[in-house]
Amino acid sequence: MHRLDLILFTHCHFDHLWGVSDSKNASLLFPSAELVASETEVSFWSDPELPGKVSPKQQPLVTQANLKLASPRLRLIKAGAEVAPGVTTFDTAGHTPGHISVHISSGSEEILITGAVVVNSAVPKPEPTTSYPPFRGYGFGAETGCRRLEPRCSLRW
């Protein structure tokens, strides 16, 4: 049987955090795993005033319950941190305020994990300056994450 040692969150939307706890948000499913997230992201979602600022569809109370449950195992990082050997994060805020993407390299092989940068509902628009709807007024838009992702991308065939 394999053991899960580390879970790295690109962002803290409820649908990503559900995977760390049981159906009642009462216990961690991977109690020995280290959980890693952007300190900017966790700070945003941990704000006690947040439920009054975003749509209930964003399930901020579910996110906050899971963050509280995860907190003893949670390591907060700044974008740009090397999380493990060959695993480096970088800032792609836009989908959420602390969204990070991940570059993983091993020898000559590498992969870029973009999280929700390229599935943002505003990206396909001709002018992707629209903020992700629940976060309008927070000073960032979809183009921000894409712009930060672009320097990391290159086609290698």
What does the overall shape look like?
globular
Cα radius of gyration in angstroms = 16 Å
Mean pLDDT: 80
Secondary-structure element pattern, one letter each: EHEHHEEEEEH
Oligomer: single chain
Major sheet size, sense and barrel closure = 4 strands, antiparallel
What would you say about this model in short?
This protein is α/β, with parallel strands linked by helices. Helix content is 20%, strand content 20%.
Task: Please characterize this protein's 3D structure.
- This protein is of the alpha/beta class and about 160 residues long.
- It has four helices and seven strands, in the order βαβααβββββα.
- The radius of gyration is 16 Å and the shape is globular.
- It starts with 5 loop residues before the first strand and ends in an 8-residue tail after the last helix.
